[in-house]
Amino acid sequence: MSIEVITGDITRLDVDAIVNAANTTLLGGGGVDGAIHRAAGPRLLQACRAIPEISPGVRCPTGEARVTPGFELPARYVIHTVGPVWRGGGNGEPALLASCYQQSMTLAAEYDLSSIAFPAISCGVYGYPPEQASQVALRTLLDQPEGGPERVLICCFSDAMAAIWRGALSDAD
Ligand code: AR6
């Protein structure tokens, strides 16, 4: 498996699946979630609404993942996952963030996907410090068993964010 850090707009990537940093409603939001819904078109929201609620308003609990088609995106699928809100790090944030990457990779393996792109989950409005998020994410990705996607992209939205992830990748490798 190869892991590559790039800078760009995840909605433009021609991969089997892109991962969305969503919220528990799965009904859209700002940041990368808003960008993905805009680029995928209105059928994405319809598909998200059709995902069953497991408690009122909650279609995907924090740390879990759900899959939909990509509709108008170049990517065939969107894997929606919900990262933790950073509350200082002592409230289970690392395990929840690791679970986002883990469940996304497991779904990708189940769908037999060979390429997947992740944004920097929780590193925007959810406030997770990117130095720590990147370590958790890369450790989880490097621990994946054989049989999942061969090509893993980390798609950062700025060169500064990409530099942090590249540093973490060279430390983890
Ligand atoms: N491509 C790649 N990365 C992007 C893009 C893009 N088009 N747009 C933003 N980013 P955030 P979170 C980066 O806030 O912290 C939403 O409202 C962004 O610069 O999107 O997990 C949801 O509905 C940052 O580095 O996600 C939730 O309510 C990273 O993506 C909440 O935000 C993640 O930032 C989730 O917050």
TrEMBL record:
InterPro entries: Macro_dom, Macro_dom-like. It holds the Pfam family Macro. Residues 1-173 form the Macro domain. One of its GO terms (molecular function) is O-acetyl-ADP-ribose deacetylase activity. PANTHER family: GANGLIOSIDE INDUCED DIFFERENTIATION ASSOCIATED PROTEIN 2-RELATED, MACRO DOMAIN-CONTAINING PROTEIN. NCBIfam families: PRK00431.1-6. This is Macro domain-containing protein. It comes from Dyella japonica A8.
